[in-house]
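Sequence dictates fold. Next comes a concrete instance:
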Amino acid sequence: QQAKSSEEVCGERYEEVKKECERVFSISKFQGCIEAGHDPTQWVDSCVYDECEGLMQRDDLPPKCIVAQAYATQCGNDFWVKGDPFPRRSMDLENWEMEAGCPDEIERMGGQQKRKED
């Protein structure tokens, strides 16, 4: 059995879902990731596939947010570019979830836990 493409998995929803995944990965918080060399293209495709396939579907954590979380984690880690002795990383990823429309870490972990008032 051959693996299905995102388009095959999504069917009629493909364009709509792709647009939303592209929006998530083009938020301003991820611009530093893109500039640092983290190409979001394959992440967008994973987002589309997972959103349509629905295996990772949870009300409190949509698949697009799981994929975006993995991207943010990778982006926040040091990484090296060939020929450059210094590691790169994208600094300002705090609160990326709000811009992406995803639950933040507190909401992902507890859901029920109340936030501390500032």
Remarks:
- Residues 13 and 37 are 30 Å apart (CA to CA).
- The first helix runs from residue 6 to 10.
- The mean pLDDT is 84.
- The helical segments are 6-10, 14-25, 31-36, 41-53, 63-76, 96-100, 105-109.
